[in-house]
Amino acid sequence: MVDIVNSQPRIFAGPSPWPELIEMVKSYGVLVTSPRDAEIILWFGRDPSEIVGEWSDNLKWLQLPDAGIERWLLPQILDGEFQTTSAAGAYGSQVAEHALAMILAGHHEIVSSARSMSWDPKSLKVRTLRGSTVLIVGAGGIGRHLARLLKGLGCEVAFGTRETGRLAEDWTEIPFDQLLDQLHAFDVVVLACPSTGKTRGMVDAGFLEHMDRDASLINVSRGDLVVTEDLVSALINGTIRFAALDVTDPEPLPPSHALFNLSNCLVTPHVANPPSAKMEGFVNFARENLELFQQGRTLNGLISSSKGY
């Protein structure tokens, strides 16, 4: 629980003003023009060096702009005497929508048919999504939004989670340490979990070998969850049917990279959370956290240095 603070906290929103965010902030506190004068910082810059150390001794809470926080895991932030929150869950709906588009592209052979430049429907293995089994690795905002979309389309959905028993709804949960034994049962595997010491490189040759040969892999979280060379080999050798990636390792991929030339692979340039929608998601998330802060309640997205997210 947080301490109940002054009903009109001093808030800095930066580094550059979004009119929608500024107007929202004014209804919750006093807007200040420097982070050194703030009790609350709502930060949506891209470079941590812009903000690290630029706060006052009275800082109570730092709100970061991203759901993935690898680049924000700095001692100055983690060891501060203030609370730090990520934007985990703020962009769940738009990323889930992109993931769904990628799943449908795989099932309906969109990439292959677009690149074939011929009218030969018999050469494609188009299938419907209804009745498919989908494993979502990660049970945050993206995964939960996606699960509801998929359920509405008639899919069977399960979650791969680090800690089971955390989902309020009646979803099937599979602990991370049991995933390999059950991967073969799923038509689609979606990566929607943070990048941590336990998840980086988790999708390697062994992981892919355990998947069904007719399955798809979708990654909308972090590129380093996947060993890229192993994925290329799996797609070429038919170990899995299809992969769609909005994030890659390295990012961006070199223009000549093999993944761009494979008819069973779709790569998008990290646009699952488009700039046109990010502002709205951040404002809504910050608004909810400001209300929790003023009520002295636990904030959404509190970062745990031990977990790495």
List keywords for this structure.
single chain; 5-stranded parallel sheet; 2 domains; 15% strand; elongated; 7-stranded parallel sheet; Rossmann fold
| Gyration radius, rounded | 21 Å
Count structural domains: 2
CATH secondary-structure class of the largest domain = Alpha Beta
Task: List the helices and strands in order.
Answer: EHEEEHEHHEHEEHEHEHEEH
The CATH topology of the largest domain is given as Rossmann fold
CATH homologous superfamily of the largest domain?
Answer: NAD(P)-binding Rossmann-like Domain
Low-confidence segments, ≥5 residues, pLDDT <50?
1-6
Mean pLDDT equals 91
| Gap between N and C termini | 19 Å
Helical residues, percent? 25-40%
Notes on the protein architecture:
The strands form two sheets. A seven-stranded parallel beta sheet has the order 8-7-6-9-10-11-12, covered by helices on one side. Strands 2-1-3-4-5 form a five-stranded parallel beta sheet, covered by helices on one side. It is built from nine helices and twelve strands.
Layout of helices and strands:
Layout (H helix, E strand, L loop, with lengths): L9 E5 L4 H8 L3 E2 L8 E4 L17 E3 L11 H4 L4 E3 L6 H16 L2 H7 L16 E5 L3 H12 L3 E6 L10 E4 L3 H4 L5 E4 L13 H6 L5 E4 L8 H10 L4 E4 L19 E3 L7 H20 L15
Helix pairs in contact: 1-9, 3-5
Put the structure in a nutshell.
This protein has nine helices and twelve strands. The protein is an alpha/beta fold and 309 residues long. The strands form two sheets. It has a seven-stranded parallel β-sheet, with helices on one face. Strands 2-1-3-4-5 form a five-stranded parallel β-sheet, with helices on one face.
